[in-house]
Amino acid sequence: MGKIQRYSKDTESRVEVNCPQIVKQYNAHMGGVDLADMLIALYRSNFKTKRWYMTMFSQSLDICVNNAWLLHRRDHADPKDRLPLKKFRIQIVSELLHKNRTRVTVSQENDPPKKIITPAAPRPTDAVRYDNNGHLPMFVSYGRCKYCKNGYTNITCSKCILRLCLVSKRNCFYNYHVK
User: What is the C-alpha separation between 80 and 119, in angstroms, rounded?
Assistant: First the structure.
């Protein structure tokens, strides 16, 4: 047995008490489980069900998302690149809601025109943008291209809902949808 210090109400100071070795080891290595329980409690997926396995599935899903977020934090050393847990969960949901997320990259020899770096309007997530599925041109009223700085167009992407140039000199429609 080891000795540890605890606060005593009677003496209003710290006193030494006996502590079994197993309790010391438990307290020393309990941090990961406490952290996992705390993260799950922050944003729990609520499944109202009478089936026990759905509750287990909900708990497993929360553990997987939290572990993915911890890996995201580990891999992004720069705090500006890190997402908070809530935004990370929202991004996962928004990307899973879109069908056919397969990514195909195609290279193009043409130099793309000057791009708009900070868009004024929200753009779709990268998983939707690069999935190469359902991006069909539609004719709409004329407006400014959302990819280059100098183009006006009457063509919009049916999935992204963005105006993109589609002319012989500038193919912003293609350049926007390819990495």
Answer: 18
Question: Which residue reads 């847990």 in tokens?
Answer: 85
Beta strands in 9-159 (DSSP E): 13-19, 137-144, 152-157
Q: For the chain, count helices (H), then strands (E).
A: 6, 4
Q: CA-to-CA distance for 13 and 3, rounded, in angstroms?
A: 16
Distance CA 57, CA 59 (A): 5
User: Counting beta carbons within 10 angstroms of the beta carbon of residue 176, is it exposed (0 to 12), middle (13 to 18) or buried (19 or more)?
Assistant: buried
pLDDT in tens, 2-18: 888 888 888 889 999 99
Q: Could you say which DSSP state residue 131 is in?
A: S
- 164, with CB counted inside 10 A (0-12, 13-18, 19+), is buried
Longest CA pairwise span in the chain (Å): 86
CB 35 within 8 A of CB 8: no
Give the model's pLDDT for residue 106.
Answer: 47
